[in-house]
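User: Some background: our group keeps a shared notebook of sequences we're curious about, and every so often someone picks one and asks for a predicted structure to add to the entry. Today it's my turn. The entry only has the sequence so far, pasted here. Could you supply the structure so I can complete it?
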Amino acid sequence: MKGYYSFLHKMLTAAALALIATPVLAAKLTQYYVPATSSIALKFNALDPARMPIDTQWLLREVAAALEAKSSWPLKTDGESTLELSGLRTRVDWDESRILFEYLHVARNKVGEEWGETLSIPVSYRIERTNDAIVVHLGPAEMADLLTRKTFLPGPKLKPVVELFQDFSTIMRSAPSLALHRAVLLSGEEESSASPQGCIERFDYVLGRYAFTNGEERPFDPKHDDVFLFRTAQESVPLKVAAVNFRGGSKVFFEAWVPFELRADGSVEGYDIAPALKSEVRRVLGDLPAREAERELDAARDGAKSRDRR
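Assistant: Of course. Here's the predicted structure to add to the notebook entry:
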């Protein structure tokens, strides 16, 4: 009899674990009218600082992420074996041409099943592109779906719907002030009468080396690349330079990831960095240090003496 009870206990434990791993879900859908909002037109510059077209899919994903960041209820997760997710998440539904705002408070097990509550608010979008601008038209949301998935386990609860609608309205009112951040790879080449070593020495003398801080993303390897500091009033940009022999002088190649900002009112920030950087490269190469000029002159004199002896 003792063995029977032990076997029964093991069976019940296994059954309980199986139920926890795969809960029985029952879904209930409730619809709400969304408080009236106006349609919104967001205007962005169509070109990056390198004069290349801005990708519209990237732009729309960034708009959704920037709107999500405006929420007073950011998405967070807690727990390990069973996760608890709460807050706002957004995603772009390309097939339906809409941005889906999902306020959720759910539990998720290891196999990916969720139970709890999710309030979905769809916002339609339409993109209009010209040579100079990309206009993102956001339509007013009309209906929201509250999906409740129940199980035998206690289910997480959302905040009151009226509070979620207030948060959503605040987000949409902030849309015209959105600012999207990105960096573009700027590259170019210049010629110099100086030797490759002399060119690198000049960048060292005028700009100095770029010092990456702990945790900073490193687009270039300072151990193997010559990376210099290009500084503006607002930004410090790592500038990679390489020089090779070319027609008795050098050809100098440079690269820099230039940060810039697109604003929803059509204005931009950081577009002056690209021309300033190119101008600085030309200035550095055009203003050789005295020791380099003397070295070039000595080499020319030695060459002349050698020819005279012949």
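Suggested note for the entry: The longest strand covers residues 114-129. Residues 194 and 249 are 5 Å apart (CA to CA).
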